[in-house]
Amino acid sequence: MTYSLITFRDPATGDARTGLESAGRVLPLTDANLDLPGNDEPTLESVIEHWDKAEGQLDRLAEGAAGGSVDWLDYADLTVLVPLRPQQILQAGANYRQHVIDLAVAHRDGEGTDEEIRARTAATMDRRAAEGTPYFFIGLPTAMASATEDLVLPGYSRAHDWELELAAVVGRRAFRVNPEEALDYVFGYTMVNDITTRDLVFRKDMPAIGSDWYRSKNAPGFLPTGPLVLPAKFVENPQDLMVTLRLNGDTMQAESTADMLFSVAQLISHASQQMPLLPGDLVLTGSPAGNGAHWGRMLRDGDVMEGTITGLGTQLVHCRDEVAP
Predict the structure, then answer these.
(1) Closest C-alpha among 321, 259, 312 to residue 290
(2) Measured between alpha carbons, how far is 205 from 239 in angstroms, rounded to an integer?
(3) Cα separation of 58 and 275, whole Å?
C-alpha cells in the first residue's frame, strides 16, 4: 500500500500534527500507534530519524486506510501545513537543459538569432552535463510556506516568477558519497515552487559579483513546499516524473525530470562533497522550461498556480499583491 507523510492542522485543537496519508485518508500519528524512541508525539522529522523502526509500523498502519475506522480523517477536509522544517536547503540552478536554453534566448545571451543562441547554448549544456558540475546555492527555511498558502507578491518588484521543481528529502547524514550510493541517502521526495524575483537576480551596482540569490529568492512564502513527502521506496525512478504547473488553468510547465542535466543521484553526491547533508535537509533539483521569463509574463495579483509532480499531490497557491502599510 502506497502512502505519504504530511503535517496538518488538527481540526479540533489547531495544533500541528503528523499524519500518514493513503488513498485520500489520513491517520494522525501518535505515540500509541507509532512506537519510536522518546515519549513525544511523532513528527515527520522523528520518522526520518528513526526510519528503520518506523517503516514496518507505517506499512502495517497504511493497510487500514480503506477500512473506515473513525481514527482516519478525510484528506480533503484538512489544512495541510509545511511538511517539515529542514536545517539546510540546497538549490540547484540551471539544471534542466531546455530551461537553460530558453533563458539564454530570453536574456539574449550573446550575439545572433534566437536559433543561433539556442544551438550554442544546447552545445554548452551538453558539454556541461558530460564534463561539468552542478551549480548550487543556499535557500532559507524562513521562505517556506505550505502548498495552499497565499503567495504575497512583494511590492518592490513586478517580476516575480514561478519555478516548480522536485526536491529530495535527505534521510541520513551524507558526506562525500558517490553517485552510485547517493539515492540510498534519500528518505523521500516532495514538491516545491522556487519563486524568483527576476530583476533582483543580478546586481546592477556590482555586476562582477554575479547573482544575488538572497534577495531574489528568500522573501516570506517564496518556497511553497509539499503538500506531502513520499517515501523514496514508492518512487521507482526519480528521473521519470512529470513536472506540471498551470497558471489560471493554462499549462506553463510540463516536462519530465529526464531533462535534468544532473540526475538526483549526481546532485546528492556533488552537494555532499563540500558539506554534510543532514536528515530532513532539502536538495532542490532545478526547474524545467516554461517559467515566466520564457513566456514574458510574471505573476500578478489574483493569479492561481496549480502545481503537480507525479505522485506528490497538488499545490494550489493564490497570488495577491502586498498591501502597503
Answers:
(1) 259
(2) 39
(3) 31
CB 185 within 8 A of CB 232: no
Contact status, residue 47 vs residue 242, Cβ threshold 8 Å: no
pLDDT given at position 315: 98
Hey, what's the cell of 58?
A: 507505517
b (16+ CB within 10 A) / e for 241-263: bebbbbbeeeebbebebebbbbb
Average pLDDT over residues 52-58: 97
Q: Are 74 and 24 in contact (CB under 8 A)?
A: yes
**pLDDT tens for each residue of 22-36:** 999 999 999 999 999
C-alpha grid cell for residue 279?
A: 536528515
Task: Report pTM.
Answer: 0.94
- Residue tagged 541520513 (cell numbers): 172
Cis bond upstream, residue 276 (ω within 30): no
Mean pLDDT for 291-313 is 96
**Which cell numbers in the block locate residue 245?**
504547473
pLDDT of 150-168, one tens digit each? 999 999 999 999 999 999 9
